[in-house]
Amino acid sequence: MKNVTDSVVYLGHWSSAGSFGFNTDILATNPINLSVVLGVLIFFGKRVLSDLLDNRKQKIVNSIRNSEELREGAIEQLENVRARLRQVELEADQFRVTGYSEIEQEKFNLINSTYKTLEQLESYKNETIHFEQQRAINQVRQLVFQQALQGALGTLNSCLNNELHLRTISANIGMFGAMKEITD
C-alpha angle with apex 140: 137 to 141, nearest 5 degrees? Predict the structure, then answer.
């Protein structure tokens, strides 16, 4: 390792004529050369660095603009969705109220229809009862009339002679025909 250190130190002491090397002694270097190199780097590097910074700045500004546009679009969409939501909620409330009123109206109509049907059935029942009563009364009348007629004929047949009997039968047939016309 000592040989490597000696050779570096040895290289540092060579004379600069005819050879190339680095002079590591800062105080021995030429301050003019350093200032020229630094000036050239600053002069040419300034434009490159400025262009890089301008490009980066433009990308950042474009990103901010795009973000603002997206934000504004998102806010607009959010407002549209909120407006649509309010509209849908109003429509849902209206349907709910309309539905309830329609249900109540249908309920009222159904109850009225049921009452009318019950009234009609009651009327039909009363008419049927009255008709059956009239029919039963007519049947009883006919039976009573037939029995009375048979009783009267039986009494007349036993009490009357033939001539009187024939006149009575004729009168009764005439009366029976008149009664039949009245009942029909």
Answer: 85
Span 95-142, pLDDT tens digits: 888 888 888 889 999 999 999 999 999 999 999 999 999 999 999 989
Residue 9 falls within a domain, yes or no? Answer: no
Residue 131 in any domain: the answer is yes
For the chain, what percentages of helix, strand and coil (3-state, to nearest 5) are there? 90, 0, 10
Query: What is the full DSSP assignment across 64-103?
Result: HHHHHHHHHHHHHHHHHHHHHHHHHHHHHHHHHHHHHHHH
Dist. CA 173–CA 181, nearest whole Å: 12
Q: How many domains does the chain have?
A: 1
Domain hosting 105: range is 32-138
Which run of H or E residues covers position 1? Answer: none
DSSP state of 29: S
pTM of this prediction?
0.37
The full length of the chain comes to: 184
Cα 162 from Cα 184, distance rounded (Å): 32
Alpha carbons 14 and 80: distance in angstroms, whole number: 83
